Amino acid sequence: MGGPVEPFKIKMVERVKLPDQEQRTEAIKKACYNTFLLNSEDIYIDLLTDSGTSAMSDNQWAGLMLGDEAYAGSRNFYNLEQSIQEVLGYRYVIPTHQGRGAEHIISRVLIKPGKNIVPRNMYFTTSKAHVELLGGEMPDVIIDQAHDPENEHPFKGNIDLDKLERVIKEKGTERIAYVNVEMNVNMAGGQPVSMENLRGVRELCNSYNLKVVFDATRSSENAYFIKEREKGYCDRSIKEILNEMMSYSDACIYSAKKDCLVNIGGFLAANDKEIYKKARNLVVVYEGLHTYGGMAGRDMEALSHGLREGTDARYLEYRIKQVRYLGEMLMEYNVPIVKPIGSHGIFLDALRFFPHIPRELWPSQTLAAAIYEESAVRTMERGAVSKGRDPRTGKNIFPALELVRVTIPRRVYTNTQMEYVAESIKKVYEKRDQIKGLRMVYEPKDLRFFQAEFEKIE
């Protein structure tokens, strides 16, 4: 038997084409070997991201027709508010155009001059940028196992409580803006956080009177791992697990373009009334009125349906198992990946894939470009290009993990397509010694991985 059985049937298809070798070589050269700069029409299977790339359900599409596009007081906002209160347990809800908008608002609410340290379980690119643009720092307090791609700790996203307390004591409580905890840590390979760890973070922060803000973007998938791996949760529903998870925070930021199965949208939710009041004020300045926050009414309606659908245990089982199906095929081919297999994609270990390519020649960027040229499968770099430069010294930062993310959109691709992806990556691995690396020829100031340009080392 092949991959996991889909708990849905397909009602519409989109035709895709496979460019030939000459077309692929020309396309990646024109994109300056940055997969973000490729045109979507040149892609056969698009695994760049799971953000906004999901297939919506019939109920979500029907919900679009119920859009109330009133500027103020849209009924779709109240449906969304009720959905978030039910699924996540937060009292207060502020919609934003996407997760980045929520990151911006929470940063402006909580980061002040002299109160600008945000400890987090490994950085994420946009989260780190919002903190640094306000003069802040984001110390990494994830457990050491997360930096080892071979380590199979079941909750590699956990915060190291000793590291966190050390940062608090060294920097001083008065300088800690908030503690940020990401679910299913993206840059670590989609690795979950345990309920025990969330509880421990809350207790530690209570003892120092510190705020806790979750990046809950992939919290439903994180809840599935808790149900699967953590003692005492196998008989609990995903919603019950989510409600307990969120109870250990003061607020959360959420990109709805992942677990909520929509193409656009996000929100900031809170139990802390002061955070809510300040954020509600700022959302009007930067996003839109507090009852739409940059989203159309129809998008809020689709989001409210998708948040509930994303907690269905049968769907989540299929979702996680499809990712594992791809990962297990790659392991059979001896392709080096991050273990254990995470939630939203497979993360290729570029340092073991290309041990002969120096870090200065961008092995992850090289691998993503090579996969496209081989197969028209688009993936993305998650290594030193994404990490950027030290804001104080200007030097490149070379993180322990140098990865390529092979991200699987939700309810979009078949298991047969996953087999094509695995075969394609295997072919690149078999000729890895012939690939030499890339030179960066254009570097944007912020979030350089989106727009940086490269050329081949010949």
TrEMBL record:
Origin superkingdom: Archaea
Q: What is this protein called?
A: Tryptophanase
Entry's Gene Ontology BP terms: aromatic amino acid metabolic process
**GO molecular function term, any single one:** tyrosine phenol-lyase activity
Similarity field? Belongs to the beta-eliminating lyase family.
Q: Identify which top EC class this enzyme belongs to.
A: lyase
Q: Which UniProt keywords apply?
A: Lyase, Pyridoxal phosphate
Q: Does the keyword rRNA-binding apply?
A: no
Q: Which cofactor does it need?
A: pyridoxal 5'-phosphate
Organism expressing this protein natively: Candidatus Methanoperedens nitratireducens
The chain positions of domain Aromatic amino acid beta-eliminating lyase/threonine aldolase read 46-423
Enzyme Commission number: 4.1.99.2
Database matches in InterPro entries: ArAA_b-elim_lyase/Thr_aldolase (IPR001597), Beta-eliminating_lyase (IPR011166), PyrdxlP-dep_Trfase (IPR015424), PyrdxlP-dep_Trfase_major (IPR015421), PyrdxlP-dep_Trfase_small (IPR015422)
